[in-house]
Every structure is written in structure tokens, then in C-alpha cells.
Amino acid sequence: MQIPEELKVGGHIYEVIQNYKFVDHPGNPSGQCDSNLLRIKLAGHDLDGHEKSKSIIFQTFIHEVLHALCICYGIQMKHSDENDELDRLAEGIFALLVDNGYMNK
Fold first, then answer.
1. What's the whole-model pTM score?
2. I need a labelling partner for 92 at 20 to 30 A (CA). Which of 15, 57, 61, 77 fits?
3. Count of domains observed in the chain
4. Distance of alpha carbon 49 from alpha carbon 66, whole angstroms
């Protein structure tokens, strides 16, 4: 399964930027959903320049799409750390796609 260059979320078209280089950003981000500019940014490398695996990049893509869905549809997570919850959901969706053969298409 390929990560698209564009993604429609609730009538909004997000640009998907792969191999984005996060500069002056706290931590070691793998991705970001910018709902104002309608962009999903995905890092291809960590801050040390090591290439991220395709599976990590795709799981990050799912995580950022979940952010876009939450923003678009006004979904709020009940726990204090939304990223933690979205990480677990994204990992579950990724496993579902892999386990059922969708990642080979």
C-alpha cells in the first residue's frame, strides 16, 4: 500500500509530504498534521539521519490521518495524552492492514 500524495478528509484535501526534515522541533518527531495548512508531514529519517523503516513511516501516516479525522469531526480523546491514544489506534490499524494482506497491494 502506497502513501498517497494527497488525502481527502471530510471535504478537505491534505497534501502529504514525505521525507520531511523537521528542524528546530522539540523531541524527535516522526510526523505532523497541520490542519490550518492542510498538510501531513512525514519524516523519512530521524534527527541523527538514520532512515526510518517503511512500517514506521506508514504507522506514522495512519497516526497523522487520525489527527486529521479528530480535528475535522471534533473528536476529543478522553485521556490527557491524545498522542498516546492515537499511537495505539494507529498501531492497531497498521497491524490489521498487514495481517490481512493490504500492505502488499
1. 0.88
2. 15
3. 1
4. 26
